[in-house]
Amino acid sequence: MKVCRIALVVAILAVGLFAQAGFAAEKLKVAFPARSLSYFPIIVGWKMGFFQEQGLDPEFIQLKTDISVAGLISGQVDYATPFSSIVRAAVQGIGVRTIMGLVDTAQHVLVVNPKVTSVQELKGKKIGINEIGGAQSFEADAVLRRYGVDPASVTKVGIVGEADRLTALQAGAIDANIASAPFHVKAEQLGFKSLVILGDFLKYTHAGVGTSLKKIQTDRPQVVRFLKASLKSLRFARAQRDETLKVMEEWLALDKETAVKAFDIGLKTWSKDGMIAESALDFDFAVLRSQGVAAGKLSLDGVFDGSILKEAAAEIGSKR
């Protein structure tokens, strides 16, 4: 595609200019918990050379969420994508902040045994979620209430891994599952049914990027450049379907059919501008209160620094 070729040429020229000027690209570490659709736009931008344009050389490393946050604090990790964990840490007074939202609509799908034809039929049955009391637990409650089902009438079963929940569904140990896109497609291929797409009605920021307060205070120019690249990545992923699908098939190890379905969900759920509204964190804050992590009123300013993203957006312009 012409746009793709232009992007690559610009990236190559940018890297060449940095080299000629005697500048080495800044190496930095970006932590992610697992390969997923949520932060995928950043990967597209990395592959397209947008970070290299900014003189950055990111290394993407897979870490558990708690280790990612600890890495931000110690300085061993520069940026991290486990959004909810960063919000939790910020609420607890730890020196981290979210700096960009990547997903502002739920990316999960309620997958059910093919014998189940409606949400109402889940009364008295078991639904799999990643952890009891976590965000998926609240998502399950939201789906049930939306269709007039008392959450207390359904048993939630905590099973951490996507593959393990699918195995439980196959074994009949659970009757339904809150599946992350694109894993719901694999369930469909095995004969299960996607009954409810949560993103059709559940709007909240559950994926994004964060860094440490120290990084913001001592190296703000780098944070601005990182966000310029990330914002360009987000816009590219939304606008350039064919090129995004190619990267998606490779990075997420998906076949063409699954990648297309995943992209369609991504397009509906990826943020358009990376900004986070106060109301977009109501869901996250409710989860934290229920877990006893926080009480009373929580503010957006305490967990999100949007000033850097605004600066980055102004520098690259509003053209999409």
Which percent band covers the strand fraction?
15-25%
The value of Rg in angstroms is 20 Å
Mean pLDDT: 89
Number of strands: 10
**Segments where pLDDT lies below 50 for 5+ residues?**
1-22
Question: Would you list the SSEs in sequence order as H and E?
Answer: HEHHEHEHEEEHEHEHEEHHHHHH
CATH topology of the largest domain: D-Maltodextrin-Binding Protein, domain 2
Keywords:
D-Maltodextrin-Binding Protein, domain 2; 320 residues; three-stranded parallel sheet; disordered N terminus; five-stranded mixed sheet; 2 domains; alpha/beta
Describe this structure in words.
- The protein has helices at residues 2-20, 40-48, 50-53, 65-74, 83-91, 135-146, 162-171, 183-189, 213-218, 220-239, 241-251, 256-269, 282-290, 307-316, and strands at 26-32, 56-62, 79-80, 96-103, 108-112, 126-129, 155-158, 176-180, 193-197, 207-212.
- It is α/β, with parallel strands linked by helices and 320 residues long.
- It folds into two domains: 2-105 and 204-316, Periplasmic binding protein-like II (D-Maltodextrin-Binding Protein, domain 2), CATH 3.40.190; 108-200, Periplasmic binding protein-like II (D-Maltodextrin-Binding Protein, domain 2, 3-Layer(aba) Sandwich), CATH 3.40.190.10.
- The strands form three sheets. Strands 7-6-8-5-9 form a five-stranded mixed beta sheet, with helices on both faces. A three-stranded parallel beta sheet has the order 2-1-3, sandwiched between helices.
- Helix 2 (40-48) crosses helix 10, helix 10 crosses helix 14 and helix 11 packs across helix 12.
